[in-house]
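Fig. S4 source data, part A: sequence.
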Amino acid sequence: MSSKSTRKAICILSGGMDSTLASYIAKNDGYEIIAVHFNYGQRTQDRELKAFRDICDDLEILEKYEIDIPFFTQIGASALTDKTIDVPTGGVEAGVPITYVPFRNGIFLSITAAIAEKEGATAMYIGVVQEDSSGYPDCTDEFIADMKKAINQGTKKDTHIDILTPLVHLSKAQIVQEAMKLNVPLEHTWSCYKEEDEACGICDSCRLRLNGFKLANQIDPIKYKAL
């Protein structure tokens, strides 16, 4: 077996549309995928975990990590992890929205780097999207580049990890189109910030997703309450 066929990549897989497409791209790039999912006290934690497990089955991923991060609920400061703060439903806000979880992607990438070093992986895939990130500061090219530099400085000399962000400059409509090309099972993905049975259709994440499908002239295969 050639070394190329055994290249490993760690995919941060939330169960959402973006991270799922990024994982399919990693497989298409020829990597053996190890999937990582974080339970961090988010409102839709159980539903996201189900999506993660379904997608791992779809991708025939044999090795996966389900990591619990309880301190995000202790910190609060985000509508996703503090149930006393309402998830906004009035459209995308200006500036950094209340759904931003403080330094979430930085923490996710740090933990994933530890797994990558242990597993001998040379790549980490994360489905950050700069254009449709709702103003999140941890979804930019600059942030990812700085995290990559810090991770490689803070690991062993023979550890070399690339952080790949194949969706960072795509719009939601382009993400839908790319997912269709790769036969991504979008019916197994979950994007809603509020609900776990049927997607609400009105939170920022649902709005971005639905608009992406509309602009791509496709029908979203999941059920929505508000539609």
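Fig. S4 source data, part B ends here. The two ends are 50 Å apart (CA to CA).
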